[in-house]
Known about the structure:
Strand 5 (75-79) and strand 6 (85-89) form a beta hairpin. The relative contact order is 0.23. The protein has a domain at 47-146: Jelly Rolls (Sandwich). It has 2 helices and 10 strands, in the order H-E-H-E-E-E-E-E-E-E-E-E. It has helices at 4-7, 35-38, and strands spanning 28-33, 44-50, 59-60, 66-72, 75-79, 85-89, 94-97, 103-107, 114-120, 128-129. It starts with a helix and ends in a 22-residue tail after the last strand. By secondary structure, it is mainly β. The radius of gyration is 16 Å and the shape is globular. The protein is 5% helix and 33% strand.
Amino acid sequence: xxxxxxxxxxxxxxxxxxxxxxxxxxxxxxxxxxxxxxxxxxxxxxxxxxxxxxxxxxxxxxxxxxxxxxxxxxxxxxxxxxxxxxxxxxxxxxxxxxxxxxxxxxxxxxxxxxxxxxxxxxxxxxxxxxxxxxxxxxxxxxxxxxxxxxx
Length: 151
């Protein structure tokens, strides 16, 4: 018989997240759903906060897929070998980052923090910080266009 009480649903309170995670300059990650905290085997989930007018260093997460859900604020994502591609997302939007894609998260607001929920496809805390000369700073933000945001 299953012991659902001990091996069922887990709740990790917002104040109980673990900030002892691999970090990238410019952002604060905190783990909520991990093997140690909740018994998760295939997923990692946590929060990410980027201060107003701040940006992360360029990085990737190895063979992990990442999904970022924007809770509040405005996210500007840059990606590519020289961070030459740009798109923006706001509250309620989801961002998918495929494996090995060099990327940078930017808080597009000069006054409000950017708060996101992050989910990854594995438990390993893979963060590979990269030394990438940034692409031309005059690159305009491209609108986030997909099936949900057609214009």
